[in-house]
Amino acid sequence: MKKLLAILIVAMLALALVACADDTADLPENDEGKVEENVETPVEPEADENAPLTPANTLLKAFKDMKANGEYTDAETAANALITNPIIPFMGGAMAVEPGYLQGFANDIAGFKSGAVFMPMIGAIPFVGYVFELEEGADVDAFVQTLKDNADMRWFICTAAEEIVCEAVDNTVFFCMAKQSFEEEAPAEDEFFEDPAIDDLPVFPGEEVEPDAPAVLPEVDETPVVDDTPAALPEVDETPVVDDTPAALPEEELVPEEPVVEYPVEDAPVVEGDLTPANHLFEEFKTLLNDGLTGSLTLANALANDRSLPFMAGAMEVAEGFLNGFDEEIHGFKSGAVFMPMIGSIPFVGYVFELEEGADVDAFVQTLKDNANMRWLVCVAAEEIVCESVDNYVYFCMAKTSFEE
Predict the structure, then answer these.
(1) What DSSP letter does each residue of 74-106 carry, written as one string?
(2) Domain that holds residue 119
């Protein structure tokens, strides 16, 4: 019996070897006599040309158009133009940056001549963009690769970007991290929280309950209870009372305190050299104008980068209509720019307005003061308003009287 089984096993092995040889018989051989197997190469699906561009790619296209049309002047101006693109659904700002730590990167970024960041004023939105300008002859491809290698799409921890778009155009580099769409997805329905019908609930044996059966309340004994126990009289303490209170001392003559004078915020005295933040920036504003700086956006950017501000701020152009910090719409200016913190919970907002020649500047200043709302952030409030005009420019700022907590 054992011999018969051994013969059958050997026969099966021989048949298996013959079958394997037949499978490779039809395969083509190469020049060295080796059998070549036909391996199918995966074909990548073609991109749909009609599909809408993501926000980052839309901004890249706008940047390329800007370069192609000769509208590019410098990194900061380009960043301001990109943050005001119609695809941006939030209020953002732009500001110049220097080599070193940049938001959105794991390591310091260097190797560029000038740069600017454009990002939301509210820090919880996973979006950040940069425009870099390199020296002529610099290795642009290596700089692009450095940005990609050090980019961190989860730099906000709680939220994350979904794509990185980084390309070079001549000696300038566009970089953007963002969601693939600004449209919020509708949350999926959770079946666990659906309210099932009463009829569909399982009924266990011996626990059948009629849903419409009224609840049976226990009977209450309404017989009044009378307490015939006589009330106990309080015990009288017959211990003699001794008055140990010390005799009152003669009253000293009280010296009246000097009255405390409270000044209104705008009329409070300011010690020279110790200006409030809003007044300090106004002095800087006048210095910038004396130095020949012009343009509302240029002036606002310079004020946003002032070293006296303890937070990261940005500036952007504004149009007539509703402006942050005012109860009513603001009209009557030729151009304007806002400078404010990137974090929206700081009670600080400033504006630079440029009016037409011959406009009633005093009336415009009064309009700003009348419509300003120092509690526009609801939870926190500013403490002073500084609004002054210099020629046809108007400076406006609402802030705390001190940044020290």
Answers:
(1) -HHHHHHHHHTSTT--S-EEEEEE-SB--TTBS
(2) 55-178
**Where do runs of H (alpha helix) occur along 155-295?**
277-290
Structural domain tally of the chain? 2
- Alpha carbon distances (Å) from 192 to 187, 198, 203: 14, 16, 20
Asked if residue 94 lies in contact with residue 314, where contact means CB atoms within 8 angstroms, the answer is yes
| Phi and psi, residue 147, nearest 5° | -60, -45
User: Has residue 130 been placed in a domain?
Assistant: yes
- The neighbouring-strand residues paired with 174 are 131, 167
Domain boundary, last residue among 178, 206, 239: 178
Does the pTM surpass 0.90? The reply is no
Q: How many Å apart are CA 32 and CA 39, to the nearest integer?
A: 19
Kindly state whether residue 48 falls inside one of the protein's structural domains.
no
Give domain status of residue 5, yes or no: no
Q: 297-325 burial string, b = 16+ CB within 10 Å, else e?
A: bbbbbbbbeeeebeebbbbbbbeeeebbb
- Whether 66 and 173 map to the same domain: the answer is yes
| pLDDT reported for residue 128 | 92
3-state helix, strand, coil in the chain (%, to 5): 25, 20, 60
pLDDT tens for each residue of 82-129? 998 988 888 788 888 999 988 889 899 999 999 999 988 766 788 999
State the Cα–Cα distance between residues 207 and 215, nearest whole angstrom: 15
Q: Do 170 and 281 fall into the same domain?
A: no
Q: Which of 178, 196, 214 is the last residue of a domain?
A: 178
| CA distances for 152 relative to 116, 134, 142, 163, 366, angstroms | 18, 22, 18, 10, 47
| Environment class of 95 (CB within 10 Å of its CB; exposed 0-12, middle 13-18, buried 19+) | buried
Torsion of CA 101, 337, 278, 392, to 10 degrees: 140
Helix, strand, or coil here: 132?
A: strand
- 7 lies in a domain? no
Q: What is the pLDDT of residues 305-334, one digit of tens each?
A: 888 888 888 888 899 988 988 999 999 999
- Residue 386 confidence class, pLDDT cut points 50, 70, 90: very high
